[in-house]
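User: My collaborator sent over this chain with a note saying "see what the structure looks like." That's all I know about it. Can you take a look?
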Amino acid sequence: MICHSLFSQYGLPLQIVSYKDLYGWTMDEIVKMIGLKNNCTFCGVFRRQALDRGAALLKVDKLVTGHNADDIAETVVLNILRGDIARLSRCTSITTGEDGPIPRCKPFKYTYEKEIVMYAYFKKLDYFSTECIYSPNAYRGFACEFINDLERLRPRAILDIIKSGEDFRIATTTKMPEQGTCERCGYISSQKWCKACVLLEGLNRGLPKMGIGRPRGNVNGDYKDIKARSTAKTIESKQCGSLDF
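Assistant: Without extra context I'll predict from the sequence alone. Here is the result:
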């Protein structure tokens, strides 16, 4: 396992947090229930929250991710295609969440994926290059193919897309949803329940598609019935899973 190898080489602290420990489900189990169409929704939501929880366990000051220029350009395209312009500021910023307990940083924002791979190869560094076995059906894959086609015609396409995303940012005077905490697990959320709890509720009730898609109308009101009829076990710790902080 590559993370164990790097831990041994550099002597850095290592905290492995699994979906099974946090949420009671593995990704394979989720795919068996939800299928290959919307599995990335679950993985994306759970992964982001798991990173924050792992960072909290280690009591770090900042969370640094390996997102590169290709990743950010893909996210810009996806947000534009979905009409989600409000997310462009967050996805194109090098540092986000500065008003929260653990800010996130993307130091490779302007570094191409191929440059990182070439550097790792020539420096003989250990790195993980295997694609997720469920990614061929991911919506992001279409954005990746589109950007690769653009880059063949215009080598600066990736950086141009990132610049466009930065320019599309919503004005600072625009009122955005206030960020609070999930009533169920205590994680940051602009709704009554965080997305992870909504997805978990669907999985535990045998209705995995319940939390997929953009919420409409009064989201908080929509979950009152869910909360009342929930058959999931009570969560004692302030989180979606079983790890305490």
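A starting point for your reply to your collaborator: Residues 95 and 105 are 4 Å apart (CA to CA).
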